[in-house]
Design goal:
globular, four-stranded antiparallel beta sheet, seven-stranded mixed beta sheet
């Protein structure tokens, strides 16, 4: 199982970023996927979840209405569109396959002026 995140970077408050997670080594289309983040000195926080076919999504209140999770099962990729970014969104973002307990290496997102 391999998960490779990309798309992180430095963005100003109010800006947007789109993260990608390319998956391989398993049958991507049958697994739910999640995005987590971890800020310095804090625990890992779930920020988005999507069902295997993409029909169901879930978000915590901290990002609901700003973040959108999606997936392309033909490309074995899950995405996280992040809008209206705030400094408190600064963290390393990870994709996860909960049933396989698999994690990517993470991608840094920094929101700062």
């Amino acid at each position: 199982v391999q998960l490779v995140e990309s798309g992180g970077g430095l963005v100003q408050p109010g800006g947007s970023l789109r993260l990608s997670c390319a998956a391989s080594g398993f049958t991507f289309s049958v697994y739910d996927m999640r995005w987590y983040r971890q800020a310095p000195g804090k625990g890992r926080e779930l920020v988005a979840a999507i069902s295997s076919a993409g029909g169901n999504t879930a978000y915590p209140p901290s990002v609901k209405g700003r973040f959108i999770i999606s997936r392309d099962n033909a490309k074995n990729t899950v995405y996280l569109q992040m809008n209206s970014l705030k400094p408190e969104d600064t963290a390393v973002y990870y994709c996860n396959v909960p049933r396989l307990e698999a994690w990517g290496q993470g991608t840094q997102v920094t929101v700062s002026s």
